[in-house]
Structure formats: C-alpha cells, structure tokens
DNA sequence: GCTTTTCGAGAGAGCGCTCTCTGGAGCGTC
DNA sequence: GACGCTCCAGAGAGCGCTCTCTCGAAAAGC
C-alpha cells in the first residue's frame, strides 16, 4: 500500500479564510478590501485567519472580477537598452518602480522590438492599466502608434511629433544648458564652444538655444556650433572640428556625457589640459562623468524623480482618462566636479 | 431624450468569436490553442472571426482557469540598479526579455527593496511561474530567503552560500582572468600586477586565481595583489598602493572596468602612459572600457546570452521542478582595444 | 407596541477562459 | 443490419474573486 500522498499544499483561497473565520466569503472579501461596514469581531477573525493560513489573494481572479489589473507596462526599446548611457533608463526605472511598489501595483516589462505594432496590440489586449514609455524620443514612432490606444500612456521626454496630444514628463533642457554655460562664463572662460546634438531632436535644439542665449546675454561671441550624434566617436569628431576652427577655445559645453568622453580624448591628444586649458561640461551626469579623467562637471536631470512623477501622472490618467494630456517639466541641476 | 450612449466598445470575448464563427466556445478555444482535432472549416471560421473582432484572449481569465501565469519575475535590487555598471544588468535583461518575448510570456519587474521578505511573499503569492534574480551576489541574502519558495528561481552568477542548492547561470571567471593575463604576457609584459576584488566574493577569488596561475605557468613572479571594492575610488587607491610597491610595473589586470577607471586616473597622474609604460586590462567590457582614454581592453562576459540561458533554465525548472538545481557556466572572451 | 430606518452580512451571479465529460455522426466489421 | 470505433464538438463545471441584491435583526421613531 503506497504511503499517503503529502497534503497537496494548495494555496489558501478566500473561501478557506472565510470558513476559518466563520464568516461568508463576501465578508472576508470586505475585510481584506477595507470595507468599513463590518463588525469588529469579524474583522479580527478574518485578519487572523488570513495570517494563519498565509493567505494571498489570487491576482488573476481579482483582475478578472474587477476588470482592472493593478499593473502597468514599462516600455523600453532594445536599442536604447543597448546604447543609452546607464542612467538614462536605470534612474527613471528606479523612480517608477519605487512609486509603483509603494502603491502595491506591479510593473510589467515590455521590450519594444522591431515590430512596434505588436506593442500596440499588447496594450490593447487588456493586460495592463496603462503604460510608461522610456525610449529615446527620436528613435521611434511609438507615440504615433500608441495614440488612441486602449490605455493611457505617459512618455519620458517630450515626443517630437505633435507633443501637445501626448502626456509626458520632461526636464528643462534649455534651462540645463543655461546653467552649464553660465558656469563656464562665471569661471572666466571667454571662448566657449558647444558640441550640440542632432537638430532633429527637440532636446538638442533646446540645449543649443540655452548655450547661445547665455553667451548673448553676456556679450560673448558664439563660436560656430559643431554637431555630434550623441556617440563618443561623434563627440571626438566634433571636438576636432571645433579645435580646428577655434584653437583658442577655453571652454566647451557638450550636449551629452557620451559625446564629452570623445571630446576629452581629443583634447588630451591635442595636448590640452582639462580644466587648465579648456573647461568641459557634459550633460546627463552619468557614470561616465563621474569616472572620467578628470571627473567631469555635468548637467544633472532629476531622472529618478521623473520616473516617480510619470507614475503619478499615469495613475491620474487611469483614474480619469478624460483628464487630457498632462505635461510636467522639471528643472535641471548642475553637478560640479573638476573639469571646470 | 438623451442620445443613445456610444457602443460600449467592450473587448471581444471568446464567446463573441465563437458566436461569429458559428461554433461553441469550447471549439473556439481549441482552435486558438492549436488543438488539432478540429475540422478545417471550423478552424478557418474561428481564425477569421478572431481577426475580424480583434480578439485578444484575456490573460487574467486564462491564468485563472489554467492555474499558470505565463509570466516570470525579474528581480533586481535598487542598490544594484543605482550602482552597477551599465552592462551588468542591461545585457542580461535584454537577453532574458528577448527570450521571454519569443515564447510570448511576460516579464514582471520586481525591485527588491530593503524588505526582502516581501519579495518572498510575493513569489509565494502565485503571481508568476518563476523568477530570475539579477543582483550582485554578495549584497543580498535573497538566495537564503528564496530557498524553497513556491516557484523556481534562477540566479545570475553563483550564489555565495551553498551554491549547490541553487540554480544559476554563471560565466567562467577563472578562465576570463587567464585570458587577460595571458594577453599581457603575450604582449611582452613582465611585471604584471592585479587589482583584485573583495575576497569574500566568489567572482573576485576566481579572477585572482586565474591571474596567479597564468603567471606561475610562465615562470613570472607575481607581485603582491592589491584589493579594491569594485568602485572607481577603490581602484584608484589600489593602483596607488600597487605603484608604491612595484614602481617597475608594466602591466595590470584589474578585476572590473569601474576599478580600472580609477586605476587609469592614477596612472595618468603618475605620468605613466597607457599602454606604452603600463598595459591595462579591465573586466566586464562595459561602456566604461569602450569610452576610456585610451579605449581599454577588457574581458567580456556573454551577459546577453546568459540572460537567455537563464530563461531556458527557468522554463525547464517550471516544467519539471524536480529537475533539481541546474548549473550552467559560459566561457568569457577578450575584447581587444588599445590599452595593451 | 408597531412601523420605519439603519446596519451588517449572506447568497449568488458573474468576470472570460480551460478542460473534462458526454454524445452524435460516420465508418468499418462480422 | 446491429455493434463497436474513431472523430469532432457541445455542455457545463469550475478557477478565485468582487459586488450587487437581499434580508434579518437591532435601533429609532411615532
């Protein structure tokens, strides 16, 4: 005769809790959901029974019954994950996850691959209550695709096309560039160039404008800007071109840390010392800035805070989809190090 | 009289599809799940109806009925997300997500905060079918906590304690260190030091052993190793100490790129050129290595592949939990650049 | 003392799907 | 021609929870 099989260790259900507490399933549900119209002794009994049985509500059943999911999607692209500097998605991710956890929601990770339409289908397929999109704005047409999707969507950064019809959380790029340029001026630099990003990106346009305006306000001449593509090599090329035009350069504002790494390499190769001969300020305050030689001053974006704010905005939209596009712009800061 | 309310645009259910196709719900379900015993004409009708109605199965209902979730958890820690070099989680994440998507599962992101027990409760709470843990091994006691959790767990990297009772995917750290050291020997270096990691981490122990063994095999003396804590500043301190003991150093193997950044800074400050005076090899092949001045040779771990493999292993364990701990070790490679 | 109101809680109908059970055709067999 | 098979497909019972409906009992009102 075979030994008795071990107790199947089925997870406790609400039914079990109700039975153990001597109340109906409905009452147990009320207690666990904080409905106030329950006699105190019943509340205690249910709480105790739930604890004793190690009861955890089955989220699938709950979601089915409620028609809500208590989970939101986080959309990243494979490309960005591979190429973006560390902080760009790690920090917002951290902020968003913290905010989501605090509200006991869960976050589903979605990697948008080449087939972005699949993503739209997924979002319309009633899996999540809303979506957070953290991708490089210009590298995607997600905003176009997701417009009028079944669930609300919040973007990190202003979408390039038709920004007014989307909800987003952004940082003040113009202000950040002003901060950096003003710092260089304050340090006594007089020939302050810039390595700007591609001008089909709003971010890059704003940063260029901030640099230009501060120079103008101080009556300083603006060297012709050079452009990079937000890569290290692009930054190196741009720096070489800038030095060719303005060998007397004594300061440079670079629109990203990654480009600044290339720029530092070229400055070193040309025999110039940083900051003695040329002061450099990057943008992003990424790990690259912190570990550069010398550690580099850089414009810091409140990325983690942005992630949290994205969740706030998304929940607001989930609660009231008609609240229309919500836009929030946060100020940039300057992380001062030894390159100025 | 109020206008008729707009059609509620309720999502199509299986019932709707079945009705449109003129079959029962059961048959529609069969078609959509690829059960072969269905007449061809019915298959067509159901497929067409599903397409017409834009039918997407409700995952909550499916999960409830099947008792499976088709989703796995990805566990990261806040700390790691903040401090680890870019590639350390981005690449495995990418590999894992790709593998998960390919099998049309979904990935739920879990940030393990200070309260790691909450994580255990979550995993036992029947939300996911299994978990992937991508955290710095020594910074956590997750393995202890998650042992005998309700669902299978696969770790990136060998857990420090009691590794034999856990499933993991790791890379051959000893072999990677051998690769790097052999490269330095081959380049004609004769005084080859190492900046090792904390010796309470298995990874660091293995890397140190690889370096030592290769030197011994070539009959080269091994300078006393110096230790860093896997930070840039730690690497800088270690480098300074190493130079103090062995001013004649002409090669150094550093157990992480981040520490190598600090080392490069100190080498530059001491007036030594890389690679002319001292050759440097890092570990991780992160963006730091690629953007360093000069671009640095580094040991590359197949992190993306590891992420994919983790998913394979996890699915295998979900299918057969009794398959016992599964261990997989992948070989390291060398990414050659200009620092040797 | 009887009716009305309020409060607390049970019954039970779903939510959308899966999957077992059952049964009707259509075919071959003796 | 009765019987047994195989092949398809419908009926319907859940999966675990929420939430409306309903109702008894206690409190309040006249």
From TrEMBL, chains A, B:
Keywords annotated in UniProt: DNA-binding, Transcription, Transcription regulation
Domain HTH lacI-type: 12-66
InterPro entries to which the protein is assigned, alphabetical: HTH_LacI, LacI/GalR-like_sensor, Lambda_DNA-bd_dom_sf, Peripla_BP_I
Molecular functions (GO terms): DNA-binding transcription factor activity; transcription cis-regulatory region binding
Alphabetical list of SUPFAM superfamilies matching this protein: lambda repressor-like DNA-binding domains, Periplasmic binding protein-like I
Name of the protein in its database record: LacI family transcriptional regulator
Organism of provenance: Actinotalea fermentans
């Amino acid at each position: 005769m075979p030994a008795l099989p071990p107790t199947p260790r089925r997870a406790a259900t609400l039914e079990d809790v109700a039975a153990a507490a001597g109340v109906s399933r409905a009452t147990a549900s009320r207690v666990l959901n904080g409905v106030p119209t329950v006699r105190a002794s019943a509340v205690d009994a249910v709480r105790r029974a739930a604890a004793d049985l190690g009861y955890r509500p089955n989220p699938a059943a709950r979601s089915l019954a409620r028609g809500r999911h208590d989970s939101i999607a986080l959309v990243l692209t494979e490309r960005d994950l591979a190429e973006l500097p560390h902080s760009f998605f790690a920090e917002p991710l951290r902020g968003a996850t913290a905010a989501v956890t605090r509200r006991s929601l869960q976050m589903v990770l979605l990697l948008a691959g080449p087939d972005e339409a699949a993503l739209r289908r997924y979002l319309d397929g009633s899996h999540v209550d809303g979506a957070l999109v953290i991708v490089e704005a210009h590298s995607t047409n997600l905003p176009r695709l997701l417009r009028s999707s079944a669930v609300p969507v919040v973007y990190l950064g202003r979408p390039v096309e038709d920004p007014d019809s989307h909800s987003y959380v952004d940082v003040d790029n113009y202000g950040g560039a002003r901060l950096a340029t003003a710092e260089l001026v304050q340090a006594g630099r007089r020939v302050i160039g810039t390595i700007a990003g591609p001008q089909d990106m709003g971010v890059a346009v704003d940063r260029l404008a901030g640099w230009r305006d501060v120079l103008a306000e101080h009556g300083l001449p603006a060297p012709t800007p050079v452009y990079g593509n937000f890569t290290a090599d692009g930054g190196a090329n741009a720096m070489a071109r800038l030095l060719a035009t303005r060998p007397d350069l004594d300061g440079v504002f670079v629109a990203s840390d990654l480009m600044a790494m290339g720029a530092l390499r070229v400055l070193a190769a040309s025999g110039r010392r940083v900051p003695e001969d040329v002061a450099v300020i990057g943008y992003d305050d990424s790990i690259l800035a912190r570990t550069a030689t010398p550690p580099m001053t850089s414009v810091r974006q409140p990325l983690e805070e942005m992630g949290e704010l994205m969740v706030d905005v998304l929940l607001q939209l989930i609660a009231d989809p008609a609240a229309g596009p919500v836009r929030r712009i946060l100020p940039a800061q300057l992380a001062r190090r030894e390159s100025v």
